[in-house]
Amino acid sequence: MKAPFDLASIFASATTTPWFTAWQRAAADSMAAVARDPRLMRMSGGLLRAQLLGARACQTAMQAAWTTFDAFAEKGETE
Amino acid sequence: MQVHKEWRDLGLELADVFDRLVAHGARARLHAQAAWARLLHGKEPIEFVGGPATPHHVIEDQAFARLLHYPAERGPGKPILIVASLINRYYVLDLLPELSVIAQLTRRGFDVYVLDWKAPGAAGPSLDFASYVDGVIPAAAATAANRHGRAPLVIGYCMGGTLATMFAARHPDHLRGLCLLGTPIEFGTSGELAKLTDRRRFDAELLMEILGNMPPAMMQSGFKLLNPGDAWNKLVGLLRDAGDADRVRHFVALESWLDDNIAFPGGLYRKYIAELYQDDLLCKRTMKVGGTLVDLRQLTAPLLNVIALRDHICAPPASRALLPLVGSTDVEVMEFDTGHIGLTSSRRSLAELWPRIGDWMEQRA
Fold first, then answer.
1. Helix A18-35 crosses helix B230-241 at what angle (to 10 degrees)?
2. What span, in angstroms and rounded, lies between the C-alpha atoms of B298 and B166?
3. Angle at B292 between CA B288 and CA B294, to 5 degrees
């Protein structure tokens, strides 16, 4: 059965109109401007750093807990 | 402590397996997207597009890399060694049978050797520049030289070009010439990536302390930030042009390659960001590898520097900076109006740029 309209050519003609091309370019430019905004870069850098420091604190805590557990286990074995 | 390290190593190995699954998943998703787009145009889906397109075989399988051999079409030819970026797979140079730099080179009579980097796994945090510049690359060059009785000409692409430049400066008798594609040397001028890795907001040391290796997804998010509207534009382009099967195959092949990455070895990543992106030591002639200085004046092999004028990963000034630093007397620059990936994966580059590169190599190899 043939479709009553050709969706592909409607899409093709809509996306090649000058207004769509201009909108697409403007949208890409504004997204790039947001991504390169120095305040946003500073803030995301700070967030990343905070998250990494948190992860490091967790790792250190786990390591300390494991070392303590290990020490007790070794002591138990020698006794 | 020891058990903790063992769990960490296991985590790094599992992360590499996860990256492989993500790459396969991305390829499946792209084929599905392409099939839907083709359906919109009333056309059949394209055939499956896999990885490398040209037949080849593995001649060495080492810890960090496999050495692949693409034989010349008409008997033994002059050897070429390709060093691709550590994070991307090499097969952007061999995407499709009709879109393959490597196939063009073998047709011209070159024997092409390629370093196919492996995921670093638990060894990643202990790797550094010396592992590659004084280890893997010279070994691969020696293998090619032994098989052909002459040193190979080396092609370095992107970060692989930076490694190849250091290798050429430290082992000048291991190569007959050096061809660089989109290779950053003065990293401070390399564009937005230099800003993203600015020391004031990016601490690679801390990042690697936590993660071990740099995951591909995290690196990709950085690259996507360079051009955030790109994903939408590509989708619109696919839906519009899906009637043309060749375009769809090219789209699926290239996008699948973009999502097929390996982790950046953590030990190298710390140094790469700190010594190159943040301190620019290579062009200040103060960079040390394995305890000794990398002096680019020792790079005396014939040099071809290919620069993409619309490169947003390695802006042209970052690549042009190499010329006054080297000791080569046979130096040529080719500037071509394309982007970073377009250097190796566009029909125009294959038709207009690569024949010129092939001519240059034929005279020096």
1. 150
2. 10
3. 55
- Tell me whether residue B330 is one of the annotated catalytic residues: no
- C-beta atoms surrounding B227 within 10 Å: 16
Q: What is the mean pLDDT of residues A26-36?
A: 87
Q: Where are the alpha helices (DSSP H) in B175-313?
A: 192-196, 204-211, 216-226, 230-241, 245-258, 266-271
Percent of chain B with pLDDT over 70: 99
Neighbours of B218 (CB within 10 A): 13
Q: Which residue of A has its CA nearest to B36?
A: A8
B89, B232 in Cβ contact below 8 A?
no
**CB proximity list for B32: less than 8 A, separation 6 or greater:** none
pLDDT in tens, B101-143: 999 999 999 999 999 999 999 999 999 999 999 999 999 999 9
Q: How far is A71 from chain B (nearest CA, A)?
A: 11
Q: Which of A6, A10, A41 to mutate to test the interface with B (most CBs of B within 10 A)?
A: A41
The model scores a pTM over 0.95: no
Q: What is the DSSP-derived secondary structure letter of residue B138?
A: H
Indicate whether this complex's ipTM tops 0.90.
no
Q: Pairing state of beta strands B177-181 and B153-157? A: parallel
* Contact between residue B27 and residue B256 where contact means Cβ atoms under 8 Å apart: yes
Q: Which of B31, B111, B134, B158 is catalytic?
A: B158
Supply B148's token pair: 């052909």
DSSP structure class, residue B307: E
Look up B314 and say whether it is catalytic.
no
Residues B32 and B241: their CA atoms lie apart, in Å, by 16
Q: How far apart are CA B53 and CA B99, in angstroms?
A: 9
Is the Cβ–Cβ distance between B122 and B12 less than 8 Å? yes
Q: What is the model's pLDDT at position A68?
A: 83
Tokens of residue A47, six digits:
């967030």
**Cα–Cα distances in Å, from B193 out to B143, B248, B287?**
35, 30, 20
Residue B166 vs residues A11, A18, B134, B145: alpha-carbon distances, Å: 50, 48, 9, 19
Query: Does residue B179 carry a catalytic annotation?
Result: no
